[in-house]
Design brief:
Elements: E1 2-6, E2 9-14, H1 16-22, H2 34-40, H3 50-63, H4 76-79, E3 87-88, H5 93-103, E4 107-111, E5 117-122, H6 123-126, E6 130-133, E7 136-140, H7 145-148, E8 153-156, H8 162-172, E9 176-180, E10 186-191, H9 192-200
Parallel strand pairs: 3-4
Antiparallel strand pairs: 1-2, 1-8, 4-5, 6-7, 9-10
Length: 209
């Protein structure tokens, strides 16, 4: 289950399919594959025939041990990072950047004064209005986090299948998805690193079947 939060609060709650119909995540959909790019410059391309794809799957399955136990489906609550570092919309951009650096993270959810999720801000967002040299801020345009954050923001509930979270990240070009409980409080965050770590710890890749 996914939600979308903006400056006015929650603007959507529902399944991935419903979200794609109402709030299509178009950033990644605009990116084209290598075959499509090759067509523009006259390079002949060819997709892998279906029989070869099926044979590759069969070969992979033959490599797996017969007694390999298929792991349970993994939900966001099982891989999310917590507690979560959050920023206030009124934080100065320079201060927000220092917080991210001190915590060793690349993005953080943004809350309003009522502690409601309203956006996400990344290092890249912050660096659009500050100039740094190492750990020192050289120039600061005196902006607030609310001036540079991304809003609205997609969030998910703790029992969301991580395959669906991965799909949202891919389609929306997102690097992280906040996890919220029934009270709309942030209880964790799932980043691309968390998803990749889950793949690494599940050798048969049963998550992605």
């Amino acid at each position: 289950m996914f939600s979308i939060y903006g400056m006015t609060g929650q603007v959507f709650s529902g399944t991935l399919e419903a979200m794609n119909r109402v709030y299509p995540l178009a950033r990644a959909r605009n990116a084209r594959g290598v075959a499509q790019e090759g067509d523009e410059i006259g390079v002949e391309t060819m997709s892998t025939p279906l029989p070869l794809q099926q044979e590759a799957v069969r070969a992979y399955r033959r490599m797996l041990p017969d007694d390999l136990e298929r792991g349970p489906l993994i939900h966001a609550a099982q891989i999310m990072s917590h507690p979560v570092t959050v920023l206030n919309q009124n934080n100065a951009v320079a201060d927000a950047w220092r917080i991210l650096q001190r915590r060793g993270i690349h993005q953080a959810p943004v809350l309003d004064d009522a502690h409601r999720l309203i956006g996400m801000v990344s290092e890249r967002d912050l660096l659009t209005v500050i100039d740094i040299d190492g750990e020192h801020v050289l120039e600061n345009l005196k902006r607030r986090v609310s001036d540079v954050m991304t809003s609205p923001v997609v969030a998910a509930v703790p029992v969301t299948d991580i395959r669906r979270i991965a799909a949202v990240m891919l389609e929306g070009g997102l690097s992280a998805v906040p996890i919220v409980n029934d009270s709309e409080h942030i209880v964790g965050i799932v980043s691309r690193t968390d998803v990749l770590r889950a793949v690494m710890t599940d050798p048969p890749l049963s998550l992605w079947r």
